[in-house]
Structures are given as C-alpha cells and as structure tokens.
Amino acid sequence: MTPEKRLENLRKEQDAYSAKVSETSRYIGYGLVAAAFSLLSRATEFSKGMEAFADNLLVWAAICGCIAVSLDYLQMLMGWLAASQAANNGTEYKQTKRGKQFQAVLNFSFYGKQVVAISGVLFLLTAIGSRVSFPAIAG
C-alpha cells in the first residue's frame, strides 16, 4: 500500500471515529438531562431517598448535558460556516481568516463537548453513588 493510500485510509477512519464521538457525546448529553430530570422528579423509591447534595449534583449533570448538546450544535454550525466560506472563496477554495476562526471554534466545541459530557457523567454517578449502600463483606 502506498503512503498516500495509507494516509487516505487513516483520514477516512479519523472522520468515522470523529463522527461517532460527536454522536455519542450528543446522546450522553440527552441522557444526562433525562436521567437528572427523572431522578429529580422523585418518581421512584430510589430517588425519594436522595439528599440535597445529590440534587445539586443532578442539576450540574443536567447543565453539563445541555452544554454538551449546545456545543455539538455549535460544532456543526461552525463546520458548515467554514466549509461555506472556503467554497465561496472564488476559485481558490481555501479557508480565509474568518474560516480559520470558524475552524478554531469548531475544534473548541469538539473537545469541549467531550469534557462537559464526561463531567456530567461523573456528577450523575456521584449522585447515584451517594444513594447506593453496598453490603459489608464478611471477612
């Protein structure tokens, strides 16, 4: 396999994984909002026993979920704007200074949504973990 073909294959894999990471971050964001709302509604016996400390964590988890979804949208919007800017740049089809700014915001959004999604998951797991009691192990 030639180096050019290998690079082309690696770029295709990179694009596929990037799309999956974005999709997964979006679903985690939706899930965080749904899980936090469900637990905060006190509809189950498990959620009725949660304390104020856990409520605060659940609110933070929901906020992280909303931010993750918002950053996902911002990433898609900036990608579209950067591509449109390059496509409408005469016959050069190169990024302009503004297109590079769009690309910078796109990159920030891509990594930022992953950070807030993971943070939200940690908030959610901590809130749930504060309610769970594990039996003692007889030794």
Summarize the structure.
This protein is mainly alpha-helical and 139 residues long.
Helix content: over 70%
* Category by helix and strand content: mainly alpha
Number of strands: 0
The coarse overall form would be elongated
Mean pLDDT: 88
**Gyration radius, to the nearest Å?**
21 Å
Q: Strand-residue fraction?
A: under 5%
Number of domains: 1
SSE sequence, one letter per element: HHHH
Description:
The chain has 139 residues and is an all-alpha fold. It has one domain (3-131). Helix content is 81%, strand content 0%. The mean pLDDT is 88.
Task: Explain the layout of strands and helices.
Blueprint: H1 3-40, H2 45-48, H3 52-87, H4 97-131
Helix pairs in contact: 1-3, 1-4, 3-4
List keywords for this structure.
139 residues, 0% strand, single chain
